[in-house]
Amino acid sequence: MVTIRPYQLDDLEDTVCLWYRTWHETFSHIKHPQPYSLWKARFRDDLAVHGDVWLAEVENKIVGFVVVIKEEQWLSQLFVDTTYQNQGIGSVLLAQAKAICPQKLKLHTLQANMRACKFYERHGFKFSKLSTNKINGQPNVEYYWVSECDV
């Protein structure tokens, strides 16, 4: 059974390890320009400071997380450990993001991540535009979601 809880400072290493590992497993064909140390610094100094971070746990193991920048209505990160995907954990994390920003959310994902694109579209997100990821230079797809109550 999955449990959702707020991120705490002592979760940093496990969360960043999951993020880094899952990204590299998902995009094994893409060489990311940043080393692990920069991922960790970005999470610690930016995402955890400016974002609302929630973790998904199974048997006290962190298996996923979501980062929402509430002021910008921005879903910054949503990652689920590859061994725990297709079990509804991403949907639970996305529901948490929608609870944080109940009117609307924006996000981008790599265009090559067709599973993520289909996931977001299944959950009511609409295509907005194409862009380029500022960190890794890859093509992004930008999506938005608006609550049915606000349509």
UniProtKB/TrEMBL annotation:
Residue ranges constituting the N-acetyltransferase domain according to the UniProt record: 2-150
Entry's Gene Ontology molecular function annotations: acyltransferase activity, transferring groups other than amino-acyl groups
InterPro entries per the UniProt record, alphabetical: Acyl_CoA_acyltransferase, GNAT_dom
CDD domains: NAT_SF (cd04301)
GO CC terms of this entry: ribosome
Tagged with keyword Disulfide bond: no
Keywords in alphabetical order: Acyltransferase, Ribonucleoprotein, Ribosomal protein, Transferase
PANTHER family: PEPTIDYL-LYSINE N-ACETYLTRANSFERASE YJAB
Name of the featured protein: Ribosomal protein S18 acetylase RimI and related acetyltransferases
Organism of origin: Nostoc flagelliforme CCNUN1
